[in-house]
Amino acid sequence: MHELHLAEDILRKIMEKAEELDQKEITSAKIGLGASRFTHMEELLELFNDISGGIKLEIDVIPVKTACAKCQTEFNPKTMRLDCEKCGSTDIQMVSGNELIVKEVC
Q1: How many domains does the chain have?
Q2: What pTM, to 2 d.p., does this model score?
Q3: Domain range spanning residue 14?
Q4: Hey, CA dihedral for 15, 20, 25, 30, is it positive or negative?
Q5: pLDDT in 10s for each residue of the chain, 106 residues
Q6: How many CB atoms lie within 10 A of CB 58?
């Protein structure tokens, strides 16, 4: 169900971008999508294809990057860590990896 809502969000953003560009017909789109936003890429692509009427979607995955508020260390966690790799602090903020950016609409 999560991937369906994300596919709908992606389509909405693509349609908004096409409207901004006064583009009437859309055959493909390229987006940047944060790795934390989805769990099953193939399911997401299949659902998007179903609801978009066949718009070809290219996704650049933006890796998750976090930063420690205490020691300012930035790192790309392999799992969703809740502590700093360097100092162990739990005051962690996500710097990137939650984006949804429409890069191109054709």
Answers
A1: 1
A2: 0.88
A3: 2-105
A4: negative
A5: 689 999 999 999 999 999 999 999 999 999 999 999 999 999 999 999 999 999 999 999 999 999 999 999 998 887 776 788 899 999 999 999 999 999 999 9
A6: 11
